[in-house]
Amino acid sequence: MSARVAAPTVATFVAHEPLVAGAQLTLGEDAAHHMRVRRLDVGDAVALRDGAGHSGEGRLVRLAKSHAVVELGAVHEHAPPPPVHLVVPVADRDRMLWLAEKAVEIGVASWRPVLFRRSRSVGARGEGPAFQAKVRARMLAALSQSEAAWLPHLHPDAPLERVIAAAPAGARWVCDPEGEPLIAGSVAPEEAATVVVGPEGGLEPDELAALREAGFRPAALPGNILRFETAAVVAAALARALVERAGPALP
């Protein structure tokens, strides 16, 4: 994927401080544990990401049980990912967390959960500030694994009408088996793309009508009936491919 910023030559970790060339950054207990599992030692090369478009090359200068210290060398700045915005249903917690990882791997620009009417029937659903913190933690782990430079912008869960009002201009799709194939869609150069994925059981007719009225075109995905997290992965990947194919605006 184009979001990858470097060859996987060294272990990659996420820093919670700004990456500054020449600075020493302290990483937490989780990173220190991971380093010990990987048998890293003082002097070994490591890579850092901040999730805000920066990557750094450094060396481990201290490894303790509770923390690790990395001295940074070069710091690089990376362009943001293509403007693909993923709107997902509030749904089963575990499956949402799995999807959050994939959203980082694919490289979406934002993640926005919607409390659809059928979301309310899910027992162990992922919603609220505490769950959003778990989503962020899972995305940070995926950032290290995928070596991406940008973390998606996380929006809090919201009702559909608020999500529609906040949707950026550009291409808009809502996944619907009755729509035209998404793969046949088009995006203007430098245009954003927003994809809405409904809950298990589908959208209620009035929800679909509200999206269509706001300019969201029904779009079908390849394959059979997909679970929401599978549909979101497929839709995000196709939308990203369409945005990348459109490329920058001509001068």
Automatic annotation (TrEMBL):
Cellular component GO terms, alphabetical: cytoplasm
Pfam families xrefs: Methyltrans_RNA (PF04452), PUA_4 (PF20260)
Catalysed conversion reaction: uridine(1498) in 16S rRNA + S-adenosyl-L-methionine = N(3)-methyluridine(1498) in 16S rRNA + S-adenosyl-L-homocysteine + H(+)
Cellular compartments annotated: Cytoplasm
Alphabetical keyword list: Cytoplasm, Methyltransferase, rRNA processing, S-adenosyl-L-methionine, Transferase
Highest rank taxon of the organism: Bacteria
Biological processes, Gene Ontology terms: rRNA base methylation
Occurrences of domain Ribosomal RNA small subunit methyltransferase E methyltransferase (ranges): 82-238
Stretches assigned to the Ribosomal RNA small subunit methyltransferase E PUA-like domain: 28-72
GO molecular function list: rRNA (uridine-N3-)-methyltransferase activity
Role of this protein: Specifically methylates the N3 position of the uracil ring of uridine 1498 (m3U1498) in 16S rRNA. Acts on the fully assembled 30S ribosomal subunit.
Similarity-based family: Belongs to the RNA methyltransferase RsmE family.
NCBIfam families reported for this sequence: RsmE family RNA methyltransferase (TIGR00046)
The protein's name in its UniProt record: Ribosomal RNA small subunit methyltransferase E
